[in-house]
Please model this.
Amino acid sequence: MMLRDWSLVLAIGCVVAPACTSGSSGSSGSSGSSGASGSSGSSGSSGSSGSSGSSGTTGDGPQLPEGTLLYLRGEGEDLDLIVARDLASGDERVITDLTSEGSSGLDIRGYALSPDRRRIAIASLRSPTKEDTATGLATRAIWTLAIDGTDFLRLTPTFPKDDQGRSRFSYNVADPVWSADGSRVLYDFGSYWYEGTTFSGGSVPWSVSAAGGEAPTSFPTQFGCSVIDPARNPATGELLFIHSVCVPGQGDGDGLYLYPADGGTKPKKLLGSAHVDGSVDVYLEKASWISDGSGFLFLGGTLESDWRPSLLAYDMQAGTASPLVVPPQGSAIVSVAMSPDASKIVYCLRRGDSTSDLHLIDVSAASPTDTPITTDGKSCYPSF
Model:
């Protein structure tokens, strides 16, 4: 589905968001991490891997049907379930609550389905080893598992503590995404600390073999910014990143950037991010590509939406961003996914009371409507 056909969806922005007038601003992309940027932390290339299970992303294991939606359901403050929902029938099953093999259930800070739809990569504190706990840091690891919730495989090692005397030091491991051939998993890796009362640090992408047993390697990017939230173009293998809290004078500033599949230091800037009239304040969440690579959906605020995080579409040919759905006052759109056949959009709407639910837009319908598909107040982060 080419983005020139999105006039059909643009009308929905007025139907589902009558509150496109001024009001409470809600959260915006500028609410992400602050302080010095571009710090990659330690390499994480040593320590125990803690891996278990079989390796690889191809084989005879079950595949997730293309009509199936994945999402996270929060069952507690630090407990996430991965749920699979058949959009045609409405039937659901829990893929995992991370409690297999004696592990206690924990939160998931990003997940992604492999290109062959047989495995899921997650960032989680699941099953820390003695080496992990000895560091004194609660650091997530990158794991993969089969789509039936079995065969967990840890990919990243124990990250040795390298705080250099800095206060309240921590590592951030989050937001995995698969390479086009399924051989590697990219993820955000960063180090953060406090300098007095100032929160400092930053994240950059690293990658690790999907087969396990190898040390992670850095993914080449432009220096001077946090480079986060990778999203792979399914048509070309290129990677879309968000540049955030950039050091003044280094690079081209905050915004959305397109990198070659193997990285590089001269990415293409697609859209700048700024909280000023005439610009988009890009929200710090992963984008979702249209399968033919003609564009992607992302989250951002504009003056017209009173800076509430809204759903926008970026047209690669025209080089423009257009609003699709603006949330009601006091709420925000915090994540989005488009189906592989480009017929459906699912987004997460978070309300002012911090409850969240999934909404579905059937783009293929003659008169597209916006339909809530969860009502439990604890469902978010859709993915296909």
About this structure: Confidence is low (pLDDT under 50) at residues 7-55. The chain has two domains: 1-28+290-384, 34-274.
